[in-house]
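Exam revision sheet. Question 4 asks you to relate a sequence to its structure. Input first:
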Amino acid sequence: MMKPYGLTVRGIIKNDSGEILIVKRHPKSRTDPEMWELPGGKVEKGEFFADALIREIKEETNLDVDVGDFAEAIQNDYSHKRTVQIMMYLTDVEGEVKISDEHTDWMWASLEKIKTLEISTSLKKVLEKKNWVL
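Answer key, structure tokens:
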């Protein structure tokens, strides 16, 4: 039996120093527990992916954002599902970061710092695909 597909969106938010906002997954997360990832989440049935990304960023980080340019797309195959993940650059970021219960920590990190962390499968795939440049 084929595993179902899901669509996930992730946002690339950079600060004035060029660092990227990453969040740490909860230890009880079904996929990639306690690993660092880009904020974002699932697109609900009938929802436009840009609207889902704005909603997920608000839920996970408390930030208000606009969706900018396309960054990358990858596929992940987990034991219980397959996902297509779209990564988008985010612009016009406003607010203070306050993470949701889905994550346990957050940080602004350079790509050099990110290379030293335990990162999610999807973040690793996208960085390898982009030759570690975002």
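Marking note for examiners. Helices lie at 49-61, 111-114, 121-129.
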